[in-house]
Amino acid sequence: MEFVRSIPAEPLDPNDPTEQRQQLNVITSFIDASNVYGSSAEEEEELREANGLGFLLKFERSRQGALLPSTEREICITRPRGSSSAQAGESPCFLAGDERCNEQPQLATIHTIFLRLHNKIAQKMAAAIEPGSVENFNETVFQSTRRVVGAIVQNIMYGEWLPIALGQSTVDELGLSVEERSQYDPQIDPSILTEFSTAAYRFGHSLIPRRLPAVSSRGSRTSLRLRYQFLRPEVVRSRFNDLALGLVLANRSQDQAQAVDSSVSREVTRHLFEPRRRRGFDLVSFNIQRGRDHGIPPYNDLRQSCGLRRITSFDDPVLGNNGDRLRELYACIVGEQMYRLKFGDRFFFTHDEDDIRFTDVQLSELHKVTAAVVMCVAVPSIDSVQQDAFLEVDPSSNPLVSCEQVRKEFLNPADFVVEAEAER
Ligand code: HEM
């Protein structure tokens, strides 16, 4: 299997021969919606509409509604569903803030949802501003919207996803709850720990299901075999609505994410990016080799630095199934990283910094924007969604709510306008 080493970063001190090799990041470390806006001013420029519509992100009109724009810079694959004998072709990839959006259609669907969220908020904000009442109209609307979308992503990550992944008590112990106001700490290093990206957060690979949930053209549940979907934006171009509905339905059926454990689907251990009539790659081998490439310390050393006991046997129960959430070493590394990404981020949405703070009223509006709300607002074909979109529907603890109602109650973008300073 071909393996390419990560690009090494310049040493901080070229005269220090003992300095360890580090790797370069491609995207920002912060949870700042860089997957929507890119990680540099140039990327943002490329993703934005030009001229009079510069407050919007570029999008492609289609029968499925607004989709991500295409780029000819990268070539993706077209291959009819489930067929290994059919001709493999080429089609342009999607362009988004993170190039990995093309990796599999569910990811591209989520990228599309956030593109639509930006444009929906920006359009409403633009319509609410009196012509001539603000300077740099496009920049004001674009950046004010970006600030709201960034806060929504943080609210979902810290308010909904982390309590599931780490458990509410760990979230509370680390001060990661979004319910209270917080303070920026300039002493905290917000860069990504290689132990986080190269090892711990790859726990997500054990959740990957064999089939991606979707809805058929007749409205019944169906699913797409994952091995045939890699690098295929065509699937989203023709079936965005089916996939978006599948995301919501996934938690209402048996097509849920798999457990947090050491078993990984063959779709990615044998068939990752599988070309026609050839063998695919093995994601777990990539992970192990990437760990060596980046010099990840031995498991027991990391346990020790997290204050956990060293283990002496492969039969130790901590190596078994984690069940439904991260524990022990995984919880330690993910918790530490999320702590740094909150308190080391000057712009974190709950921070009480004078020049960036959301008002109490704005904050309480943002708290209401959950993943379920985003789904309803961005996908008109969804009628209802469970309150907590990450969890299974349950009539008493996690009931379905009507999207019509959710859309009516969605925050008023006009309340979030902040005058931009920069010329555009
Ligand atoms: C079908 C779904 C997925 C596929 C096909 C996939 C595939 C990949 C691939 C090919 C890599 C690069 C491996 C390397 O060369 O080192 C990677 C990295 C990674 N994946 Fe996934 N992945 C999936 C889902 C997930 C999920 C659900 C999570 C977490 C919740 C996740 C977390 C990560 C992380 C943290 C990295 C390292 C990124 C970095 O170092 O910048 N992945 N994945």
UniProtKB/TrEMBL annotation:
The keyword Heme applies. PROSITE patterns: PEROXIDASE_3. The keyword Iron applies. Keywords: Heme, Iron, Metal-binding. It comes from the Eukaryota. Residues 1-20 are annotated as: Disordered. InterPro entries: Haem_peroxidase_animal, Haem_peroxidase_sf, Haem_peroxidase_sf_animal. Heme b binds at H205. PANTHER family: LD42267P, OXIDASE/PEROXIDASE. This is Peroxidase. The lineage of its organism: Eukaryota, Metazoa, Spiralia, Lophotrochozoa, Mollusca.
